[in-house]
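We modelled the chain as a single entity of 511 amino acids. Its sequence is:
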Amino acid sequence: MMHESLKEFVGSTKSYLNREESMAVEMNAYALGITRSQLMESAGALSAEFIRARTQKGKSILVACGPGNNGGDGFVLARHLSCDYDVLVFLVAGEPSKPEALSNFRLLEKSGINVVRESKEGLALIKRSDAVVDAIFGIGFHGSPDIRSRAAISQINNSQATIFSIDIPSGMDISSNDDRHSVKADYTLTFHKKKIFINESRNSGKVSIINIGIPDYAELLTGPGDVYLATAERRVGVEKRENGRALIIGGSSGYHGAPSLASGAALNVISALRVGSGYVIVEVPDSILNLVRAVSPNLIARSCGSERISFTEEIKSEIRKADVIALGMGIGRDDDSMLNASMIIQYASSLGKNLIVDADAIHALKHVRAKLTKSILITPHHREFLALTGKDTSKMGLKERIKVVMAEAERLNINILLKGHETIISNGKLLKVNISESSALATMGTGDVLSGIISGYLSKRDDPFNAAAAGAYLHSRIGDTLAASKGTHIIAMDVVESIPKVIRDFDKNVE
């Protein structure tokens, strides 16, 4: 783990979070060792303090709780308020269904706090309460409230009570910016950071941020939440090209393994996750075409030159059709290859295509005359970074490297993933750091697999920064897992073959 604190880089995380980003931050916090129970206790206790400061002792407080974790926050809150107030808990939509919520509900019952389960009684009691705490639905809610919840929301809105909403006003769907059926709160106590639509909605009342103990590293370090963010839904019945189309351009007469591994990684992302590229084409020089085709029957390999890659009309056509292009693996650094690579970069960039520039193609960036764009992600190791920027990061500490990478990403107007034991990802404004626990991936070809993994994500989700963070985390997690069984005796294809085992937990299949 790191020895240098990254506290000074907290400002390089997002100021506002949407629904998925909030969930991703919590997932990363869990991966760091923070438990759901810890966050629930903190959320409930600190929300109770906020309400206590604004409510006279002895007043009646009804806590309306849903069956999920937002209801669990309400149970904790009710327990903390019960010594100073006349507290009643109303189960709006049935018994608690989540383990942590159920645990806190049982503790609540043992504390002697009154619980109402019957809807008519609960609805009537809302009218007679001095304050109502809305803990029915949290930020994970989407869609429209069910009949029971809608009735409770309506009664809360028609009451004369002071209304405190926990996390978000219940019934608000911030994924679709819909607050038509939500609680109209006087105060909204949202956790960790501001949420975009909550702050914009009049139904939120006065919004306050409650710091519940999610560490800064949950946003600065890569984690499973980044994989969740980069993972797209896979719908039943769609045609393969609708699931993302990736174009891999690489190889020369001297190298044939790299482009094959990159496309293999993208294909493994597809088959395992069902969200990555649905259609992958590999364009290589004719001199190695048959070698590449022999790697796997799953590869669609086509020729783009004789001994070196060329900027052909066919390449132009494939770039126009592709959702993401990965360029550079094994193309060589001779003048012709650099010229053709620079033209490919310039053409893809002019069309706004997501483009991963890797390996030899990084050297071609110097020959691109047009302004680079944020649709470009480069994935250099320290020698390639030095060749491009003139900055030698090999002897720098982590914080100095971060500052250099962020400055260069801003100057060049691109996304950078600087590979290493501590991989740094930045678009010039935002920062992610990925920490590997082993040196297992320090072997040839594994960097090309990383580009393939990122291609799989980027073909479906149009965010190079997120795709790079997810790819870096998945790549290193696979390496650390393989190191436990194979030590440092790992080849790149081991990583490709391990992708489905690690990634399937993030599937988002939709009927």
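As a brief sanity check on the tokenised model: The radius of gyration is 26 Å. Confidence is low (pLDDT under 50) at residues 236-241, 264-275.
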